[in-house]
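Hey, does this match?
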Amino acid sequence: MSATLPPWAAQALERLLAARAAGRLPHALLVCGPAGLGKRALAGELVAALLCERPGADGTACGSCRGCTLRQAGTHPDFSRVGLEENEKTGKLRSEIVIEQVRAVSARLALTPQFGGAQVVVLDPAERMNTSAANALLKTLEEPHPGCLLLLMADQAFALPATIRSRCQRVELRMPGRADALAWLATQGVDGETAR
């Protein structure tokens, strides 16, 4: 497991990799919890493992195969990231994920994976989809393509429509206890006074 993941996120990753090894990884995951708990680091490790051509015995990415190299360069053809984009008309960052973005993802997932493995999409922040985008995503969630995984990242999962939440397996990271948080911060080189 990655040394950069806090223990509470590493435990979630272990469960997801075990589900993958058993052939039980769902087609959609809602990774949620308060900001700053390692959700995105967890998703990054899971994406790396899914796109790796030679995963280790524990299911984690090798870091050196073609799939890992392309993912690290941001050019893996079977990986997509959907987030807040620039508005072409105003040049400003949009405040929501729009239907065109979700339709593009759905069209991409309908294609055969170029490397023959998994196709992975990270939608972050999922709670910022507008109503039309959420409705467009429902069809993809209801009729998943084999070998595809949608990772919806949300700091505020309650803001997602219930229809979206109900079609995803929830992976919730919760606030660690004080002792666990302080112990992890110490392993990251944070002095005791600052950590407290």
